[in-house]
Amino acid sequence: MELDSKIYVAGHRGMVGSAIVRELQRQGYTNIITRTHQELDLTRQDAVEQFFAEEKPEYVFLAAAKVGGIVANQSALADFMYDNMILEMNVIHAAWKNGCKKLEFLGSSCIYPRMAPQPMPESCLLTSELEKTNEAYALAKISGLKYCEFLNRQYGTDYISVMPTNLYGPNDNYHPEHSHVLPALIRRFHEAKVAGLTSVTCWGDGSPLREFLYVDDLANLCVFLMNNYTGRSESDNKHGQGSPDYMATVNAGTGKELTIKALTELVAKVVGYKGRIEWDPTRPNGTPRKLLDVSKATKLGWTYKTELEDGIRLAYEDFLNNPMRAER
After folding, report:
1. pLDDT in the model for residue 287
2. Bridge partner list, 279
3. Where are the beta strands (DSSP E) in 126-231?
4. What span, in angstroms and rounded, lies between the C-alpha atoms of 195 and 174?
5. Residue 241 near residue 226, CB atoms below 8 Å
6. How far is CA 39 from CA 36, 42, 51, 171, 328, in A?
7. Alpha helices in 198-304 (DSSP H)
């Protein structure tokens, strides 16, 4: 990308999209296009096609999505599948139709099978059954990734996909029912500290292993990949071997994991909550383990920068400075 290239960031108000905008601005990109949901409903095909026909963005970061934790995914299965699939298809198709030079699709590590080999390489996609608690969201994300792959195969496009692990950081969602585990814990321990509660009960038994990536590190990788990775052929990549890589998918993570129990203790420490942490094993644990194989990103020359405790501290500061985030 040139510094004056026309770049569209879909979902710029979300945690990932806003981080990508910050990273682009930090690196000196000056021609960034954004639209709010009120200005452009990405589930409306006619509106999306009109936008692309008028604006003709050269590069697209597709970070828009309907997201949520276990509760949200289980209670709105149809909504999660439909909304995500329709907006992805609209944006990717309109980008191709209007000659977009390159598109980067943001997926999720939940696309990989429930019992995938650990750490999970990009090649394990669709090799066995998905985790039921987020199956609808995963199927939608797999469809977006596959549509990018098929456009690369059929039309020679340069569309790539990034599969992030669990994310956290500025502009996260702290809703009590619809948030992911780390922001949910930040809110819960903060409110328990303020209320002087002697104990906090967390879901499951604390045994699942999880990996977490600070969202600004992901944004740095996204811009890096847009400039250094291609879906056309591995021979065009800086460290390629010459064989086609139409799926062009790169995992985004730290390569490090910890138990949910250890995570809760770390969040409680950062927040300053001193009470007991109890567990409710009648509640779902989710996938037992979700560690990404990040060797592909490493070979391309990228690695994460923010350690987990430092990132949680930054996220907590963001939560405290933006109290309205807790209402979403």
Report:
1. 75
2. 202
3. 159-164, 166-168, 199-203, 209-210, 212-214
4. 18
5. no
6. 5, 10, 10, 20, 20
7. 215-228, 260-271, 295-300
Q: Give yes or no for a contact between 131 and 110, defined as CB atoms under 8 angstroms apart.
A: yes
| Amino acid making up residue 208 | P
Q: Which pLDDT does position 235 carry in this prediction?
A: 45
> Which positions of the chain have pLDDT values less than 50?
235-236, 239-242, 328
Write down the catalytic residue from 137, 159, 304, 316: 137
285, 204 in Cβ contact below 8 A?
Answer: yes
Closest C-alpha among 195, 186, 73, 207 to residue 140: 73
Q: Measured between alpha carbons, how far is 124 from 273 in angstroms, rounded to an integer? A: 40
pTM: 0.91
The per-residue pLDDT for 289 is 85
Is 168 marked active-site?
A: no
Neighbours of 37 (CB within 10 A): 11
